[in-house]
Amino acid sequence: MPQMPRMRALFLTHNYPRFDGDPVGSFVHRLAVSLAGQGIDVRVIAPAAADVPAEDTFDGIHVTRFRYAPRDMETLAYTGTMGAQVRGSWKAKLAMAGFLAQGYRAVSRELKEWAADVVHAHWWFPGGLVARAVRARTGLPYIVTMHGSDVRLAATVPGGTALFRRVSRNAAALTTVSRWLAREAETMDMLSRPIVAPMPVVPDLFTPGGARDANRILFVGKLTEQKGLHHLLRALPLMKRAATVDVVGAGRVDDTAIRKLAEELGVARRINWLPLVSQRALADLYRSAALHVIPAVNEGLGLTAVESLLCETPVVAFDSGGLPDVVVPEKTGLLVPVGDARALAAALDRVLGDAELRARLGREGRQFALSQFGPDAAAARYAGILRSAARSHA
Asked: Are residues 160 and 251 in the same domain?
């Protein structure tokens, strides 16, 4: 069988690892690396960050980062709070204008020296807007992958849905990382017909093994309302078991209110507040926990759930967003109604109190995660989408 000719894809993203082991945007990096085995060379355009070089190479992937504002205003990327910043501050709105303009220029400069066949924008906003502008000038096709936060943005910001339609209808393909996101995108634009294509995981990093603490729960994520730590805090006093919780992600946003809530509920001493950690350190935390809880609402997919399952750590989550694509009841974990603290407490007690159930959910969870989110399968799916998009321009 003849080999497919190599092609070039230019990734455009506002989240990409800033250093080796950085978890921010790591799933975008994993896809870039995995595509090499499918005959697709990838370069990345991403925004600047403090103490990060303008050009770098990670695992053979060349990354160019562009400045978009004075250094003290370059706070939009890598924090997970871009939307909130832009909605709440004129300073952030000015920074976003700079982001769009400088992102366009950075892509244009890159294309002059590296002739890409297709642009892959991660998140329709802001990357998809830049890709659409590049296509208007050059005719270069682009695809857009929606990861979750951008769907919420389109649905909640005035004019967001109309702007999303402009991006989606000019894209050669629109992908989402979960079935729920695909349904949400179709609601906003019935002509979009998104392809469900999750990001790849790293099965050789997230593996089972080691001793577990049968009373330790793990929470991973920004301490925002959407991620739902407050739901977990309210469930803890209702539990029969006095479990402790490792909270990974403290300090990424102002967490004064959530820490105060823990004090008011009398559970502060049961919380171990941890900052954002490297992927390798996170894998160790998955392996040492009895379970991983995700009380998030409208989560795009929940790749941390996939990572957890690869470590044979079962997941208890809200039945919301894309999480049901990962958490299969009684097979990989348990799902409970959104916002139901008593149901959440009961599910946590059940898993913590049944070692045989935890072991079975862990074994079946890893098998499921490997079959659905392995790097080869994900890369092959995206390679087909990118090649189809490139042919539309040939």
From this structure: no
Q: How far apart are the first and last CA of the chain?
A: 23
249 in the same domain as 174: no
What does the alpha-carbon distance between residue 146 and residue 234 come to, in Å, rounded to a whole number? 31
Distance CA 85, CA 91 (A): 9
Measured N-to-C along each axis, helices 303-310 and 279-288 cross at an angle, to the nearest 10 degrees, of 60
Predicted confidence band at 3 (pLDDT cuts at 50, 70, 90)? Answer: low
**Closest-CA residue to 123 (of 84, 94, 164):** 164
* 274 lies in the same domain as 383: no
Q: Provide the pLDDT confidence category of residue 117 given band limits of 50, 70 and 90.
A: very high
- Is 208 part of any domain? no
- Same domain for 79 and 164, yes or no, is yes
Residue 167 lies in a domain: yes
Top-confidence range, 11-25, 67-81, 332-346: 332-346
Angle at 261 between CA 256 and CA 263, to 5 degrees: 95
Relative orientation angle of helices 160-170 and 149-156, to the nearest 10 degrees: 130
* Sheet of 61-66, strand order: 55-58, 61-66, 40-47, 7-12, 118-122, 142-146, 173-176, 195-196
pLDDT tens digits, 16-47: 999 988 888 999 999 999 999 999 999 999 99
Six-digit token string for 142: 């682009």
Whether 317 and 335 have beta carbons less than 8 Å apart is answered as yes
CB under 8 Å to 344, separation ≥6 — which residues?
Answer: 231, 232, 235, 293, 295, 316, 318, 336
Strand partners, 12: 45, 121
Structure tokens at 128: 């998809």
Q: Which two tokens stand for residue 164?
A: 């999303």
